[in-house]
Amino acid sequence: MPRFPRNCLNTSFFHVMTQGINKKYIFNEQDDTKKYIKFMYELLKEHDVKIIAYCIMNNHAHILIETNDKKELSDYMLRLNCKYAKYYNKKYDRVGYVFRERFKSEGICDEKHLYNCIKYIYNNPVRAGMCDSPEKYPFSNYKPMKNNVEGNYIFIDVEDDEERTYKECINRFLKENNIKLQDLKDDIENLKKLVQILNIEYKMSLRKISSELNIGREKIRRISKL
After folding, report:
1. Is the residue at 73 inside a domain?
2. What pTM, to 2 d.p., does this model score?
């Protein structure tokens, strides 16, 4: 499995996934999908973000965004989804939430990880059986890639199994740093790095981290503030 770089927290590339409430279709018609894409590009003028790749499905969207400011990413996605939700509710004469939650995001750690993420995004409709090749899907900005994109990575998706993802992240970190789980509590440097990855990149609560690592919650809380 490719190396999970320690500087992943400093990345400028983020894989974002947003999904319809209760996993329902929120892009019911082609005009809805086109409207979301239109909003995506309109809001770029007001935020310091760049869209690298995207694919809009029936009930969710994948977007690869480049930015040096995580707040810009958060503000951009919040405005995008709010703008679309207002459009959607007005068009279909409904009230309430349109999206399942604000959005999910994960940092992209290196060049190979980046190109694998692009390939993953473009292949969404192929995996869903909506087309037999990514270039035939009309609602992505598909571009052919010449880069070698071999590798085994896990990406967020609508059926994301959080428990499996957490455990694989922890096991990968332990393997790459040649440390056993039971010894991690005495290795402050590596414990801090892993807590940062789980808390910031994987949005795990400190309580959940404490449970997964079998380390006292108070110690995890102190480590997170170092």
Report:
1. yes
2. 0.67
84 and 46 in a common domain: yes
Summarised one tens digit per residue, pLDDT across range 115-127 is 999 999 999 999 8
Q: Give percent above pLDDT 90 in the chain.
A: 51
Residues 6+ apart with CB under 8 A from 95: 89
Same-domain status, 130 and 167? no
Length of the chain: 226
Position 57 in a domain = yes
Instruction: Please report which confidence band the pLDDT of residue 8 belongs to, taking 50, 70 and 90 as the band edges.
Output: low
- At what angle are helices 30-42 and 70-91 packed, to 10 degrees? 150
Please name the residue that has the structure tokens 């694989």: 168
What is the H or E stretch that residue 25 is in?
Answer: none
Give tens-digit pLDDT for 13-35. Answer: 999 999 998 778 899 899 999 99
Query: How many CB atoms sit inside 10 A of residue 124's CB?
Result: 23
Give the strand pairing for 13-19 and 60-66: antiparallel
Q: Write out the two tokens for 202.
A: 């994987």
Same domain, yes or no, for 214 and 109? no
| Residue 16 CB neighbours (<10 A) | 21
Domain encompassing residue 27: 6-136
Q: Kindly state the tokens that stand for 31.
A: 């005009």
